[in-house]
């Protein structure tokens, strides 16, 4: 019943291919039927051929036995192939369910928890759940039907032996439940610990530079030891519980088999049972035992599946972002967008996230074709404002118009088509340079991708690579320099051809020389486009049409560089600090 409820919960999450599933289960039933015929065939061989000396039955019964075994094997191959396909398909469907929700929850939730929190959901938990649907449930179905038929056959041959079997089965079914609660708690602990291990392994690789630079190898080993200490203890306990449960079942089974042999032998001597019937009854009893052994074997896996399902369901309960729609509908669909003017207007905009008032009364106007800069000290709210404009954070109160429409009335797909964003560090996907650039416009041709790469300043890099655009790069593009990664991101923007650019400190991680080169390339794509930029680069800020100064989540002043230098103390202080930093950089170089 518990497994059935879990199956229903899973079935509600994925699309089950009932046609293939039905064929697979039909093969299973036919194979079981043929397998369960074998003890009855052996009964006839023993009683009629070996004991009764009726040799005419030998070859027909032998041929029937071989035929049943052969046909059952063919059916098993078909069944296993179908369930393997369904397993992969179910895993993919479950991952798509998780991935779709991951794309809808607030980015802040992902950034807060990091990859170690969500990666196991996509990799481990979905595979565990699929394994439950397409392997564990199948095996339990096979064994339960086998047990039912086996008991019926034993009763058919001798009702007294049937009673012995029926009385013993509840005891064998009870044994796995003895450690049920302990196994569930341990499964939860191990799953949570594995999540921490995943995060730790990620840090071990990503933090290699700092670990070596600060001589933290001993600290790293100690941290690993502490984390694995609890895992070793709990895993050992889990093994003990499982082994104890299995051995208890084995001892009870051995005792029942001895009892059946003794009781059956007595009936053979009394003439109420044949040798063939006793052998067949013992064989059927072994068939009836397999389900119980299967329950013991898979009990821990079922608990893991429950934990995985619980984790996935908890994840799916995370509220999705409400800042923007996910589907196109209504009057602002792609068909009748008809966008001409590019404006961003916010009025008394407030954002409260997880109890923190991060944006306070923001009033902002970005007119079509303008270059608008946002400046402020670290933590002043610049990046938060840009994320809000992209719909990554929900608006608590106030008004935000993007392209003359309330942000909440836009579909994400349509808005993202017309807005291009460049981050402080652009993410590079595993694949070729061509594939990474083409993400800007998946419908682009190779000629267009190559043109975008040339305009983004990647020519010198591509000339050094034997395979040029089709050179493979690893996840996050570690073979590329910071400047090359940002140029690749610029090439994406060139392909995308957005009407509105949002640039979030696009050169903050670059050295001064590379920064100048990248900014020159950025200036090319900013021409004729509305641009909102957060930057520490003075030349970029000074050339903006309007500059907004932020402090502690508020816009405290706005104007041109000249007016702000004269009237805004915070802006003047930021400029002075940047002049001083520039002089130091020139001096140190």
Automatic annotation (TrEMBL):
It is a multi-pass membrane protein. Residues 26-302 form the ABC transmembrane type-1 domain. Residues 339-577 form the ABC transporter domain. The keyword Membrane applies. It is found in: Cell membrane. Keywords: ATP-binding, Cell membrane, Membrane, Nucleotide-binding, Transmembrane, Transmembrane helix, Transport. One of its GO terms (molecular function) is ATP hydrolysis activity. GO terms for cellular component: plasma membrane. It holds the Pfam family ABC_tran. InterPro entries: AAA+_ATPase (IPR003593), ABC1_TM_dom (IPR011527), ABC1_TM_sf (IPR036640), ABC_transporter-like_ATP-bd (IPR003439), ABC_transporter-like_CS (IPR017871), P-loop_NTPase (IPR027417), Type_1_exporter (IPR039421). The chain crosses the membrane at residues 20-45, 57-78, 136-155, 161-179, 239-262, 268-289. This is ABC transporter ATP-binding protein. Its main location: membrane.
